[in-house]
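Bench notes, afternoon.
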Amino acid sequence: MQTRRCARWILPLLSCLLLPVAGAAELRVQGLFEGRALFAVDGERFMLRDGETAPQGVRLLRATSHSALVEYGGQRQELTLERGRFGGTYQRTGAELRIPPDARGGYIVRGLISGQTVPFVVDTGATLITLSDAEAQRLNLRPAGGVEVAVETASGIVTGRRILLDRVQVGGLVLDRVEAVVLPGESPATALLGMSFLGRVDMQKEGSLLVLRVR
């Protein structure tokens, strides 16, 4: 997936995403792409590419936009978003959003933050929803009360503020209490729909379309 910008946390918390787990904790697939897949083990999310093994013991053998073949806990199983839990099944429920690529191959969608319209670039490389200070001011958010964090951007490391958004809506997908980070100035020019939102929905490529579904 191509994106215009990418923000990545420089925080010790990132190491928690890849901590080993005792025994065979529950594994779920949350996003499917050609050659890579997004997983969660006991709520901790991580992305693997074909042939990679996570410290939790999950090995991705092959991923397509329809399924992921994995080895975990001494077993091999093919997971899909319909059969997305290791050793069990569940059915997709709720809303679905199908996003076509733009001319550059990225995915842009209009959403709402606390009822106000916001254009987003879908960015799986951004840990959290990422907003510029200019956008935050337009939305009447108050980042000054947030926690200071170091964020790596294309222009270098900057100090942002982590805040909690009451509600984020993209199409018919609605999530409450979503973490975001506000960066100083006017960058990113378009807000990034990062993993604090994407990690709570199912993602799948269907041809050129990116499909987001509420679980």
